[in-house]
Specification:
Bound molecules: uridine-5'-diphosphate
Helix content: 25-40%
Distance between the termini: 35 Å
Largest sheet: 7 strands, parallel
CATH topology of the largest domain: Rossmann fold
Number of helices: 10
Strand order of the largest sheet: 3-2-1-4-5-6-11
Strand content: 15-25%
Oligomer: single chain
CATH class of the largest domain: Alpha Beta
CATH architecture of the largest domain: 3-Layer(aba) Sandwich
Structural class: alpha/beta
Length: 328
């Protein structure tokens, strides 16, 4: 019998890549997406159910129809800048909506849950290597909302037997090398796609947010993970739950950090084009350095972030960028 997996946010960047990986692993991904930030053209690997997470009746209907063996929960608001200005939107759109989803999953008896959390739950820790046991002290409502959902999953685990694999992602980049799906946000806020737009002349320049950080070149340092590696970890996480191994948190990073200037230098090398830049002020809510080891994911899940070199991530993103975007 086909194993359906309910993928919230399956029409978004990471969710659509996860659907591709799930299909390749023999599952049927059922995308549940409001299309507020997702793209229907990205739903290519299984059925589509349009809906809002806050709509419990709609969720109940979808759980009853597909009887999923698990939920992969990607749907979220994820812009730090917006979260700083409109925290209510994040508490409602992420925390309250996820509560409705978790309650619907428990009511439907769908007790395996893979959750997309973030390194933004950590806040600043003076540049130390972050791991699963590092205290979570988020700097913004985005990180705080994701931490709250992690707490909710633990409570529902204790009370209702919900089993969760929580992935704390570092900076996800790159695209499907076959260009079936890729990264496209409207508006775009992420470094690599904005940089590629600037290279192509679609925007005048990339603004570097802050050049006076306490790092070797003054710009922020992040740990970039290839989206294809990231979604591989999700399939391994699902199989971990199916094997009855229980709830677990995993960081997904490479252990190697790159500054904004280093990313720009790599892009120049990969695309053979100049990156027009403007030096700007710091962006509110940004941590100086976010880098993680992924020893646990490697040791316990057997995860290997083999494609997560900057050259490959930028190269695949560039290929996608040039192959065209989704349209409304
Ligand atoms: N960044 C930048 N200019 C931009 C967008 C991002 O300098 O136009 C920097 C940002 O300050 C951060 C890094 O690039 O240090 C990665 O930012 P992004 O928004 O891609 O991901 P985040 O780290 O916020 O999840």
């Amino acid at each position: 019998m086909a194993k359906h997996v309910l993928v919230t946010g399956g029409a978004g960047y990471i969710g659509s890549h996860a659907c591709k990986a799930l299909k390749a692993a023999g599952y049927v991904p059922v995308t549940f997406d409001s299309l507020v930030t997702g793209w229907e053209q990205a739903v290519k690997f299984g059925p589509f159910e349009r809906g809002e997470l806050a709509d419990r009746a709609r969720l109940d209907e979808v759980f009853a129809k597909w009887q999923p063996v698990a939920v992969m929960h990607f749907a979220a608001l994820s812009q730090v800048g917006e979260a700083m200005k409109e925290p209510g939107k994040y508490w409602r759109g992420n925390v309250s909506a996820s509560l409705t989803l978790i309650e619907a999953a428990v009511a439907a008896g769908c007790l395996d849950f893979v959750f997309s959390s973030t390194c933004a739950t950590y806040g600043d820790h003076d540049g130390v290597m972050l791991d699963e046991d590092t205290p979570q002290t988020p700097l913004n409502s985005y990180g705080a909302s994701k931490r709250a959902i992690e707490d909710m999953l633990k409570d529902f685990g204790a009370a209702h037997g919900l089993r969760s694999v929580i992935f704390r992602y570092f900076n996800v980049a790159g695209a499907d090398p076959e260009t079936e799906v890729g990264e496209f946000h409207q508006p775009e806020t992420h470094l690599i796609p904005l940089m590629l737009d600037a290279i192509e002349g679609k925007r005048a320049a990339l603004t570097v947010f802050g050049t006076d950080y306490p790092t070797p070149d003054g710009t922020c340092i992040r740990d970039y993970v290839h989206v294809m590696d990231l979604v591989d970890a999700h399939v391994l996480g699902l199989q971990w739950l199916e094997a009855g191994k229980g709830s677990r948190v995993f960081c997904l990073g490479t252990g190697r950090g790159f500054s904004v200037r280093e990313v720009i230098d790599h892009s120049r090398a990969v695309t053979n084009r100049e990156v027009p830049i403007v030096l700007g002020d710091r962006r509110a809510g940004d941590a100086v350095k976010l880098v993680s080891g992924s020893e646990r994911a490697m040791a316990e899940l057997g995860w290997q972030p083999a494609r997560s070199t900057l050259a490959q991530m930028i190269g695949d993103a560039w290929k996608w960028h040039q192959s065209g975007h989704y349209d409304r």
